[in-house]
Amino acid sequence: MAYTLRELAEVAGAVLRGEGHIEIDSVAPLNRAGARQIAYCATPRYRELVGASGAGALILHHSDADVFSGNALLCDDPRAAFARVAGLLHAPRPIAAGCHPSAIVHDSATVSPDANIGPQAIVEAGAVIGPGAVIGPGAVVGERTVIGAASRLEARAIVMHDCVIGERCVIAAGAVIGGEGFGYARERDGRWLKVPQLGRVVIGNDVDVGANTTIDRGALGDTVIGDGVKLDNLIQIAHNVKVGENTAMAACVGVAGSAVIGKRCLVGGGTGIMGHITVGDDVEVTAMSFLKGSVEGPGRYSSSLPAVDADVWARNLGRFRHLDELARRLRRIEQTIKQILSGGKH
Amino acid sequence: MAYTLRELAEVAGAVLRGEGHIEIDSVAPLNRAGARQIAYCATPRYRELVGASGAGALILHHSDADVFSGNALLCDDPRAAFARVAGLLHAPRPIAAGCHPSAIVHDSATVSPDANIGPQAIVEAGAVIGPGAVIGPGAVVGERTVIGAASRLEARAIVMHDCVIGERCVIAAGAVIGGEGFGYARERDGRWLKVPQLGRVVIGNDVDVGANTTIDRGALGDTVIGDGVKLDNLIQIAHNVKVGENTAMAACVGVAGSAVIGKRCLVGGGTGIMGHITVGDDVEVTAMSFLKGSVEGPGRYSSSLPAVDADVWARNLGRFRHLDELARRLRRIEQTIKQILSGGKH
Amino acid sequence: MAYTLRELAEVAGAVLRGEGHIEIDSVAPLNRAGARQIAYCATPRYRELVGASGAGALILHHSDADVFSGNALLCDDPRAAFARVAGLLHAPRPIAAGCHPSAIVHDSATVSPDANIGPQAIVEAGAVIGPGAVIGPGAVVGERTVIGAASRLEARAIVMHDCVIGERCVIAAGAVIGGEGFGYARERDGRWLKVPQLGRVVIGNDVDVGANTTIDRGALGDTVIGDGVKLDNLIQIAHNVKVGENTAMAACVGVAGSAVIGKRCLVGGGTGIMGHITVGDDVEVTAMSFLKGSVEGPGRYSSSLPAVDADVWARNLGRFRHLDELARRLRRIEQTIKQILSGGKH
Question: Which of A45, A52, B211, B232 suits a disulfide with A182, CB 3.0-4.6 Å?
Fold first, then answer.
């Protein structure tokens, strides 16, 4: 499916420069795009590729307009404009409604006639699958769980019983939503007594959950993921966590139980967030950090420790282990100098 | 199913205060519980909610007895008492014995008539499924693997060939038990030669394994998980690791090959444990730490680094990178001062 | 299947000492091996077990020849020799070609008659399965994806659409190859606009991907994993990452988008690698580190922080938080001392 450059300019909200009538049928990288393709440049990192691009048109920031002499869509945010254009040119295929004969759908489940239930998918008793929803190959929808309109479970994704997934969500392959929270009481002899996990996972609209990510159900109340939240792969969200609207977390983040995270937060990859803390709106945490206490927003927090040459690291680490002693020695020196300067007896 | 408060007091091992005859049918949070519900308070954090609770009864620590004037179960450990009460009121449904027609059970497998084999579950040749065991939707039991009585594999959990799972275990959705360990010999040119992984995973009784957690089989000997161990989600246990009884690990922990971990240890989320080390009994490691060497127990170990304001962090980190130089300068100062004080020539 | 010790010496490229005609049928650990078994010792850690071993033969380093008086294969690299011997004695069963009746194979897929398609496996439209390939129980091969000769997808492994897996690869249970990359443009109000992920994952020959590991497809170009790469469990490889030949990563590593990693690198467990950086050939990064910037190879890099007694840790950490202030105080002392020594006014 091709669109004219003029149509794309409109979708992108960009200023058209050049031939509005040319047809574009796909997107491509700057250095590989051909005459019927459009590419973009959003960072100075790739600006050197712009001039030589063979693309039919480029999406550029206004300030880069002069770097390229061909057809262009000029705008303030080339990446957002590209997302819109690419979303149009590479729109997902329309859903083929229906239920694969190998799927197991319980009689008491309610499946919209517009939904697609893939091969070997399982829809358990009382589940509700909304219009336009896709339950991918081998995906599992537990008892009484609700999957909202136009949401998609990819291959082998699992949403356990009594959970709620909003509209237009993507639950990626292998993700597990609604597992039992990690809740135990400890007996005197060290044995663990399971605390039943009776809450749900409630996910808003337009939420993406990455591959093999896990979100546990609440112990008593619910685990709640707000509208527009984006979670990357291999993330752990523990029981009773709340994640505010449009917060995004990169891969391998772990959020411990009952943490409350604000709206529009950005959490870097590999970061850990302590349980029972509160994180304000618009908080950014850098990659590989450990957010241990509550913080207000907006703000940027870090404990990420960049790697250096291993020998240099070992030397500094050796000193770190005696930092307290080092600080005490410094204090003593200061006192001695004070005595020297005051001419006092030492 | 409802119980009288007196019955619940007995199960909880708590002192009954108030009307023993009232009926309780479920648990609820302090601030949402109604007349037929029971709630609990185990931490000062929630004590302010106690007085206003509309619960039919509360489970409280003896020292909180005066905060609430209604029916109460008084005890030393409200969380453990609550676990017992909730376990009774919200007991899992009895297993419906039988095998779903879509399950694939090999002729040579031995499945107890009391077991439940879910839709699209796979039980391979020579596997043994004990009485009361549940093999969830799409779960896979490999060749010759034994699943003990009353153990449960949740949806899509996988236990590969020749492994042993004890009794009353829960292997959560997406977990992979018995994958091949990461064992290679390196050739001169950098290529890797696979070392066959011939051991098993042997899991004791009452073990919980979290969603998408992975436990690799041993290379020659076995990987062994002791009775009562609780593993949260997205944990990696490498080949030949031993985990002692009743040890608990929070999510996202990684344990490298051949580590031997004691009994009743507590491992915080995101922590890494080095291979080939020995960790004593009753060792606690705080979240996001790296246990690199052997440690004796009991003890508490940490290298967790809490995030602070990113600018403050950057300044201190800049100094850290020159910590060795800083320590040398301090040493020089001390020597100079010594000379000054001795009146010597400098 | 048994082999004579002479045959094993030849396979191992080792010097035979003792009775070449004895038959060996399996491998075993040093302390449990019997007369028809062979064991090995590659590290001083286990040398004390060598003398007392009941093994029919041992694989030893030349320098350990005197520690054991029995039959031996002597060589420079006992671990590599063992890998070869064990690979022969414990060779995988030959593939039973064919397609399980419960598998769902699309009419337009091309499946080699020599391939094995397991129970409930799914092979989607246009996919190509090479000779000798194994698609394990419940594994999913997406549309137009190519699985090379003799490659194996274990239980429930998923390779999404339009990906390429080379020859002799192992994609372990629960792994997800080809999920959508985490790519969004941010709108002014904080909402996220999805950037379509149009690239592929292209995996070379002899690559191992661990259980529940995730590798995302490229945004425009491809995510590329070179020949001979070994990835452990629960690793995240983001979109457009390139991993060079024979690089190995231990479990729980996260590699952010567009990172380019060289050949023969060794990445320790739990380490994070920043996006858009370049890592040279033969770089080693220690466990639990954070490689934030580009580095050249060869080299060894670290920011791993070993745990110590929690009280000691807390004291040093408290000082770390004032490291910048501490460094400033040190500077002032140096200036003061300079003034003292110069006899100047202070």
Answer: B232
Residues of chain A contacting B262 with CB distance shorter than 8 Å: none
Q: What is the pLDDT of residues C83-130, one digit of tens each?
A: 999 999 999 888 889 999 999 999 999 999 999 999 999 999 999 999
For residue range C36-82, list pLDDT tens digits in order. 999 999 888 888 889 889 999 999 999 999 999 999 999 999 999 99
Smallest Cβ–Cβ distance between C321 and the set B196, B292, B308 belongs to B308
Q: What is the DSSP string of A175-241?
A: -EEEEPP--EEE-TTS-EEEPP----EEE-SS-EE-TT-EEEPPSSS-EEE-TT-EE-TT-EE-TT-
Q: Which of C6-10, C88-92, C135-139 bottoms out in mean pLDDT, i.e. has the lowest?
A: C88-92
pTM for the full model?
0.96
Residue with tokens 């029972």: A276
Give every strand in the sheet of B15-17, ordered side by side: B15-17, B72-75, B57-61, B37-40, B26-27
> In angstroms, what separates the C-alpha of B9 from chain C's closest C-alpha?
39
Given A156, A228, A330, which is nearest C329 (Cβ)? A330
Cα C316 to Cα A322: distance, rounded to the nearest angstrom:
7
Residue C260 contacts residue C283 (beta carbons within 8 Å): no
Query: Residue A217 has which token pair?
Result: 């159900």
Cβ-nearest to B196 among C90, C313, C321: C90
Q: Which tokens hold the place of C89?
A: 């004695």
Contacts of B among chains (3+ CB pairs under 8 A): A, C
Q: How many CB pairs under 8 A join A and B?
A: 219
Helix C323-342 and helix B310-320, axial crossing angle in degrees, nearest 10: 50
Query: CA of A320 to nearest chain C CA: how many angstroms apart?
Result: 7
Which residues, in sequence order, are CB contacts of C62 under 8 Å at separation 6+?
C15, C74, C75, C76
Structure tokens at C280: 């040279």
Q: How far apart are CA B61 and CA B65, in angstroms?
A: 7
Task: For tokens 């080792």, name the residue.
Answer: C14
SS3 state at C298: coil
Annotated active-site residue A239? The verdict is: yes
Count other Cβ atoms within 10 Å, centred on residue C336: 18
Pairwise CB contact (< 8 Å): B320 & A320 = yes
Cis peptide before A92 (omega within 30 of 0): no
Number of H-type helices and E-type strands within chain A: 4, 40
CB atoms within 10 A of CB A100: 17
Quick check: C216 pLDDT over 80? yes
Residue C67 near residue B174 (C-beta atoms within 8 A): no
Binary contact (A172, C174; C-beta < 8 A):
no
How long a stretch of residues is chain B?
A: 346
**Contact criterion met (CB < 8 Å) for B323 and A320:** yes
Tokens of A27: 């997107």
Residue A46 is classified by DSSP as: G
